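Lecture notes, unit on binding sites. The following record was shown on slide 14. It pairs a sequence with inosinic acid.
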Amino acid sequence: MEKKKIIFATTNEGKMKEIRMILGDLDVELLSLKDAGIQADIEENGTTFEENAMIKAKAICELTGEMVLADDSGLEVDYMDKAPGVYSARFMGEDTPYSVKNKEILDRLKDAVGEERSARFVCVIAAAFPDGKVITTRGTVEGLIGMEEKGTNGFGYDPLLYVPEYGMTTGEMDPELKNKISHRGKALELMKERLGYENISH
Ligand code: IMP
Protein backbone atom coordinates (compact mmCIF):
# COMPACT_ATOMS: atom_id res chain seq x y z
CA MET A 1 0.00 0.00 0.00
CA GLU A 2 1.24 3.48 -0.82
CA LYS A 3 2.43 5.40 2.25
CA LYS A 4 0.52 8.45 3.40
CA LYS A 5 2.21 11.70 2.32
CA ILE A 6 2.94 14.58 4.67
CA ILE A 7 4.30 17.80 3.18
CA PHE A 8 6.40 20.04 5.44
CA ALA A 9 5.93 23.63 4.25
CA THR A 10 9.61 24.60 4.16
CA THR A 11 12.32 25.00 1.55
CA ASN A 12 15.02 24.89 4.23
CA GLU A 13 17.02 21.66 3.87
CA GLY A 14 18.52 22.03 7.36
CA LYS A 15 15.04 22.04 8.87
CA MET A 16 14.01 19.08 6.69
CA LYS A 17 16.95 17.08 8.03
CA GLU A 18 15.92 17.75 11.62
CA ILE A 19 12.30 16.99 10.80
CA ARG A 20 13.23 13.67 9.14
CA MET A 21 15.33 12.75 12.17
CA ILE A 22 12.48 13.35 14.59
CA LEU A 23 9.48 12.21 12.55
CA GLY A 24 11.39 9.49 10.68
CA ASP A 25 9.76 6.61 12.51
CA LEU A 26 6.22 7.64 11.59
CA ASP A 27 5.08 5.36 8.77
CA VAL A 28 4.65 8.21 6.27
CA GLU A 29 6.41 9.79 3.28
CA LEU A 30 7.79 13.19 4.37
CA LEU A 31 8.19 15.73 1.57
CA SER A 32 9.59 19.27 1.52
CA LEU A 33 7.91 21.85 -0.75
CA LYS A 34 10.69 21.20 -3.25
CA ASP A 35 10.19 17.41 -3.09
CA ALA A 36 6.47 17.98 -3.69
CA GLY A 37 7.21 20.34 -6.63
CA ILE A 38 5.39 23.25 -5.02
CA GLN A 39 6.37 26.88 -5.38
CA ALA A 40 4.32 29.09 -3.13
CA ASP A 41 4.93 32.47 -1.61
CA ILE A 42 2.63 32.72 1.38
CA GLU A 43 2.33 35.98 3.27
CA GLU A 44 2.91 35.40 6.99
CA ASN A 45 0.63 38.18 8.19
CA GLY A 46 -0.39 36.67 11.52
CA THR A 47 0.45 38.28 14.85
CA THR A 48 1.17 35.05 16.74
CA PHE A 49 3.41 32.05 15.99
CA GLU A 50 0.26 29.88 15.97
CA GLU A 51 -1.45 32.09 13.37
CA ASN A 52 1.56 32.14 11.05
CA ALA A 53 2.15 28.39 11.26
CA MET A 54 -1.57 27.73 10.61
CA ILE A 55 -1.68 30.18 7.66
CA LYS A 56 1.21 28.32 5.98
CA ALA A 57 -0.05 24.80 6.73
CA LYS A 58 -3.65 25.55 5.64
CA ALA A 59 -2.60 27.30 2.42
CA ILE A 60 -0.43 24.38 1.24
CA CYS A 61 -3.03 21.84 2.38
CA GLU A 62 -5.72 23.58 0.33
CA LEU A 63 -3.36 23.73 -2.64
CA THR A 64 -2.39 20.05 -2.56
CA GLY A 65 -5.16 18.19 -0.77
CA GLU A 66 -2.46 16.48 1.31
CA MET A 67 -1.78 16.71 5.02
CA VAL A 68 0.68 19.57 5.66
CA LEU A 69 2.95 20.57 8.56
CA ALA A 70 4.37 24.10 8.88
CA ASP A 71 6.39 25.91 11.53
CA ASP A 72 6.96 29.41 12.73
CA SER A 73 9.64 30.43 15.20
CA GLY A 74 11.42 33.36 16.75
CA LEU A 75 12.95 35.01 19.79
CA GLU A 76 10.83 36.64 22.51
CA VAL A 77 12.63 39.17 24.72
CA ASP A 78 10.47 40.04 27.74
CA TYR A 79 12.18 43.43 28.31
CA MET A 80 11.17 44.36 24.72
CA ASP A 81 7.50 43.33 25.23
CA LYS A 82 8.25 39.97 23.60
CA ALA A 83 9.77 41.52 20.45
CA PRO A 84 11.11 40.60 17.94
CA GLY A 85 8.72 37.62 18.28
CA VAL A 86 6.97 36.74 15.02
CA TYR A 87 9.02 39.49 13.37
CA SER A 88 12.37 37.85 14.29
CA ALA A 89 13.47 37.34 10.68
CA ARG A 90 12.19 40.80 9.64
CA PHE A 91 13.56 42.70 12.70
CA MET A 92 15.55 45.72 11.40
CA GLY A 93 15.09 44.36 7.86
CA GLU A 94 15.33 40.82 6.48
CA ASP A 95 18.81 41.41 5.00
CA THR A 96 20.37 43.11 8.04
CA PRO A 97 23.19 40.92 9.41
CA TYR A 98 22.51 39.24 12.76
CA SER A 99 25.64 40.88 14.19
CA VAL A 100 23.76 44.19 13.81
CA LYS A 101 20.39 42.86 15.05
CA ASN A 102 22.06 41.24 18.07
CA LYS A 103 23.95 44.43 18.97
CA GLU A 104 20.69 46.38 18.81
CA ILE A 105 19.03 43.96 21.26
CA LEU A 106 22.04 44.13 23.62
CA ASP A 107 21.88 47.90 23.44
CA ARG A 108 18.14 48.02 24.22
CA LEU A 109 18.80 45.81 27.26
CA LYS A 110 21.79 47.76 28.58
CA ASP A 111 19.90 48.74 31.77
CA ALA A 112 18.26 45.33 32.30
CA VAL A 113 19.68 43.10 35.03
CA GLY A 114 19.14 39.52 36.16
CA GLU A 115 15.68 38.11 35.47
CA GLU A 116 14.79 41.29 33.56
CA ARG A 117 16.84 39.75 30.75
CA SER A 118 14.55 36.71 30.41
CA ALA A 119 13.91 35.55 26.85
CA ARG A 120 13.07 32.40 24.91
CA PHE A 121 13.09 30.78 21.52
CA VAL A 122 9.59 29.70 20.52
CA CYS A 123 8.55 27.30 17.78
CA VAL A 124 5.01 26.41 16.81
CA ILE A 125 4.23 23.53 14.46
CA ALA A 126 0.82 23.43 12.79
CA ALA A 127 -0.69 20.37 11.10
CA ALA A 128 -3.48 20.98 8.58
CA PHE A 129 -5.62 18.02 7.52
CA PRO A 130 -7.54 17.81 4.24
CA ASP A 131 -10.85 17.74 6.19
CA GLY A 132 -10.14 21.28 7.44
CA LYS A 133 -8.93 20.33 10.91
CA VAL A 134 -5.81 22.10 12.23
CA ILE A 135 -3.76 21.32 15.34
CA THR A 136 -0.71 23.11 16.76
CA THR A 137 2.09 22.28 19.19
CA ARG A 138 4.56 24.68 20.82
CA GLY A 139 8.12 24.23 22.12
CA THR A 140 10.35 26.75 23.89
CA VAL A 141 13.93 27.18 25.12
CA GLU A 142 13.99 29.48 28.15
CA GLY A 143 17.02 31.62 28.89
CA LEU A 144 18.45 35.07 29.48
CA ILE A 145 19.89 37.55 27.02
CA GLY A 146 23.63 37.50 27.76
CA MET A 147 25.73 40.64 28.27
CA GLU A 148 27.52 40.05 24.96
CA GLU A 149 27.33 37.71 21.95
CA LYS A 150 28.89 34.32 22.64
CA GLY A 151 29.46 31.30 20.44
CA THR A 152 29.83 30.74 16.75
CA ASN A 153 27.65 27.64 16.33
CA GLY A 154 24.08 27.98 15.20
CA PHE A 155 22.62 31.00 13.46
CA GLY A 156 20.51 34.10 13.97
CA TYR A 157 20.02 35.04 17.62
CA ASP A 158 21.85 31.96 18.96
CA PRO A 159 24.84 33.93 20.36
CA LEU A 160 22.42 35.95 22.54
CA LEU A 161 20.38 33.33 24.39
CA TYR A 162 22.19 32.11 27.50
CA VAL A 163 20.61 28.91 28.86
CA PRO A 164 21.40 28.73 32.62
CA GLU A 165 20.75 24.99 32.77
CA TYR A 166 23.70 24.37 30.43
CA GLY A 167 25.82 27.40 31.38
CA MET A 168 26.19 28.54 27.77
CA THR A 169 24.38 30.25 24.90
CA THR A 170 22.66 28.18 22.23
CA GLY A 171 25.40 29.56 19.96
CA GLU A 172 28.02 27.77 22.08
CA MET A 173 26.19 24.42 22.05
CA ASP A 174 27.29 21.70 19.70
CA PRO A 175 24.56 21.06 17.14
CA GLU A 176 23.61 17.72 18.69
CA LEU A 177 22.87 19.32 22.07
CA LYS A 178 21.07 22.28 20.48
CA ASN A 179 18.83 19.91 18.45
CA LYS A 180 18.09 17.89 21.55
CA ILE A 181 16.90 20.85 23.62
CA SER A 182 15.65 23.12 20.83
CA HIS A 183 12.23 24.76 20.61
CA ARG A 184 11.76 23.16 17.17
CA GLY A 185 12.79 19.72 18.45
CA LYS A 186 10.34 19.98 21.37
CA ALA A 187 7.44 21.18 19.19
CA LEU A 188 8.17 18.39 16.67
CA GLU A 189 8.26 15.72 19.40
CA LEU A 190 4.90 16.95 20.69
CA MET A 191 3.49 16.95 17.15
CA LYS A 192 4.75 13.40 16.66
CA GLU A 193 2.84 12.35 19.78
CA ARG A 194 -0.31 14.12 18.62
CA LEU A 195 -0.08 12.58 15.15
CA GLY A 196 0.27 9.18 16.80
CA TYR A 197 -3.09 9.79 18.53
CA GLU A 198 -4.59 10.97 15.24
CA ASN A 199 -3.45 7.65 13.74
CA ILE A 200 -2.39 9.49 10.59
CA SER A 201 -0.76 6.57 8.84
CA HIS A 202 -4.10 4.84 8.28
P1 IMP B 1 11.53 30.94 10.74
O1 IMP B 1 10.48 30.39 11.61
O2 IMP B 1 12.39 29.87 10.13
O3 IMP B 1 11.02 31.93 9.75
O4 IMP B 1 12.55 31.71 11.68
C1 IMP B 1 12.26 32.95 12.22
C2 IMP B 1 13.48 33.63 12.76
O5 IMP B 1 13.58 33.38 14.16
C3 IMP B 1 14.82 33.22 12.21
O6 IMP B 1 15.11 33.89 11.03
C4 IMP B 1 15.74 33.65 13.35
O7 IMP B 1 15.92 35.04 13.33
C5 IMP B 1 14.91 33.34 14.57
N1 IMP B 1 15.19 31.98 15.07
C6 IMP B 1 14.32 30.94 15.05
N2 IMP B 1 14.90 29.84 15.58
C7 IMP B 1 16.16 30.21 15.93
C8 IMP B 1 17.25 29.50 16.52
O8 IMP B 1 17.20 28.31 16.82
N3 IMP B 1 18.38 30.22 16.72
C9 IMP B 1 18.50 31.52 16.39
N4 IMP B 1 17.52 32.23 15.84
C10 IMP B 1 16.34 31.58 15.61
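Take-home: The two ends are 10 Å apart (CA to CA).
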